[in-house]
Inverse folding.
């Protein structure tokens, strides 16, 4: 009887999980870093990094740049804004910023630089972006974005640069602190261009997603997965596309994108010269990763395990 009950409970779980997955798949494609509860979806599976995590044998510093968003079902998923008859797309801007960051970093032979994609036309699932960074033993993983405030085509009052970084004081605390420090270093470089520095944005999961140790996970996927994979990672927002000054002074010309990309690179170099390689991945404690069906409310620490959140 008890066994039958267990079988019944298990099948209910499978049914609920299947329902959860179909809900996730049918959700709007525009589920990106900046807005909405859709951004912290239940995680149903992970792509195991093929190499890492771990510290690479190379003495070079490895930087993974992630140009935000991309085309999904024929439409750009990032923010956009039309000004003076010109339409600006976040997806295209972040691709340009990333290319300039890469170009600048590669002038220095100490750096190996990867992009998570090579075209604004492409989109890559968020977890895959972080898994890729872990797979190449990233010493720093920077997801590059442009902000927008709600208003549906109208200008906004918000302006400046910010970073969605992992929250400290809980799971992988030391790693979170390192990510925050790196993010602040980049924000300082951007603010030296004249952009207002809005600082770090730290947000908790809104749907009850937890890390392996039971602590609440981060809301934004890039810092959340970075914490899980043991890599320093965060989002940098390069000003507001629908704030007139941010757009016209910092986000509308090729020179602007070069300046932003190079400011990111300078911040990356400044931080990594001081902090060195990421040794954290080597010491991530995966022993607390929950096992079996009872672990559905926790996110395991290691990348090569299936993941599930509560809501
Ligand atoms: Zn974005």
């Amino acid at each position: 009887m008890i066994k039958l009950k267990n079988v019944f409970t298990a099948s209910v779980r499978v049914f609920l999980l299947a329902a959860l997955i179909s809900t996730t798949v049918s959700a709007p494609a525009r589920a990106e870093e900046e807005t909405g509860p859709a951004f912290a979806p239940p995680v149903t599976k992970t792509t195991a990094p093929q190499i890492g995590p771990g510290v690479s044998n190379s003495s070079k510093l490895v930087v993974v740049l992630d140009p935000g968003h991309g085309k999904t079902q024929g439409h750009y998923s990032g923010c956009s804004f039309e000004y003076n008859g010109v339409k600006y797309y976040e997806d295209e801007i972040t691709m340009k910023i990333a290319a300039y960051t890469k170009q600048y970093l590669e002038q220095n032979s100490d750096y190996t630089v990867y992009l998570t994609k090579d075209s604004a036309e492409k989109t890559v699932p968020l977890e895959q972006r972080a898994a890729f960074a872990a797979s190449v033993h990233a010493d720093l993983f920077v997801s590059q974005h442009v902000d927008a405030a709600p208003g549906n085509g109208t200008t906004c009052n918000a302006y400046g640069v910010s970073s969605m970084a992992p929250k400290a004081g809980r799971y992988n605390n030391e790693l979170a602190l390192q990510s925050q420090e790196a993010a602040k270093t980049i924000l300082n470089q951007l603010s030296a261009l004249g952009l207002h520095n809005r600082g770090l944005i730290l947000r908790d999961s809104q749907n009850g997603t937890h890390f392996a140790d039971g602590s609440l996970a981060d809301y934004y996927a890039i810092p959340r997965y970075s914490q899980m994979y043991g890599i320093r990672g965060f989002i940098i927002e390069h000003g507001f596309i629908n704030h007139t000054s941010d757009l016209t002074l910092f986000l509308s010309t090729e020179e602007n994108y070069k300046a932003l990309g190079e400011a990111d690179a300078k911040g990356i170099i400044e931080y990594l010269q001081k902090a060195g390689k990421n040794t954290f991945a080597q010491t991530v404690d995966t022993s607390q990763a929950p096992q079996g069906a009872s672990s559905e409310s926790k996110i395991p620490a290691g990348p090569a395990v299936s993941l599930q959140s509560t809501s």
Observations:
- Residues 32-34, 68-69, 78, 90, 145 surround zinc ion (CB under 6 Å).
